[in-house]
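Anyone able to model this chain together with iron/sulfur cluster?
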Amino acid sequence: MREILTAGRYFRQKFGCNVYKTPISILGFTCPNIDGTVARGGCVFCENESFSPNLGVQKIDKKFLLNPSSASNPFLSSQLVQLEGQYNLTRKKLEKKFNAKKFLVYFQSFTNTYAPFDTLKALYEKALSFEDVIGLSIGTRTDSISEEVLDYLAEKSKTKEIWVEYGIQSVYDETLQRINRGHSVQNVIDYITLTKQKGIKVCAHLIFGLPGETQEMMLESVKKAIELGVESIKIHPLYVVKRTALANDFKAKRFTPISEQEYIDTLLKTFEMIPEKMMVQRISAGVSDETLLAPKWCENKHKQMFNIKQAIKQKGFVY
Ligand code: SF4
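re: yes, here you go
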């Protein structure tokens, strides 16, 4: 049996205790392919409104959106309060439910390096100052991170656990265009390479079941992530939620979601390819409410994970 290096195992080996990520959504953040900088409407599967953060919102104008050139940020102090509120709330839940002892503040929603450096620095420094925080995980796009931010994170990496999470999704430009991703595969390669050169750990996000993709293409994306030397991957099936461009394609029968069988088969082939030291942070995803249109097997995350784990076990892997 081969043990997959899950996040739980990785952090327990490294820190000797249960370490959990605390997801954070900061109002005022957006994405360059939502605000029109590289595209409008966002990725075809992104229900932008579902990302609207509503935890701990205080005195922040919902119309206020940052970008790297914003001249000022009148809501920074409110954002810092929001950050602290969300951290404390999630931390308590994780302590109670999972006996979590240490935490990684996970800037999750939207593009978390898409703001002026001063704002980013203030938020990251604040997060790192919280009790029992060992580091940061920052979700972003490869077309939205500056060398200034990378240098800052590289410096922090010397003493803290710093991760940058980039959405690769696919290594095919035609797929990226089809999902309105707003950047090229070359951009992904360039910025993951640069991030790694600076000594920062990278987690790559991949989606199986993107429009027009065969299993061979999905596995090619896995292969490229391995070649780029990313330390971790997250994989999930593409599902369709209401109020997205993908929902229109699905209703018009222009898009057929991946089957559970094909997803699991692709996942097993992925496990056979990845190096033992690569951390696998996620292998499932779904929505258990009325916003999910398809596929049905993504509506019950527990059942989905149970089926995945059964198949994994039969193949000789422990997840
Ligand atoms: S990059 Fe992320 S936040 Fe931006 S549109 Fe795509 S999925 Fe949505």
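The pocket of iron/sulfur cluster is lined by residues 31, 33-34, 42-43, 46, 110-111, 141, 167 (CB under 6 Å).
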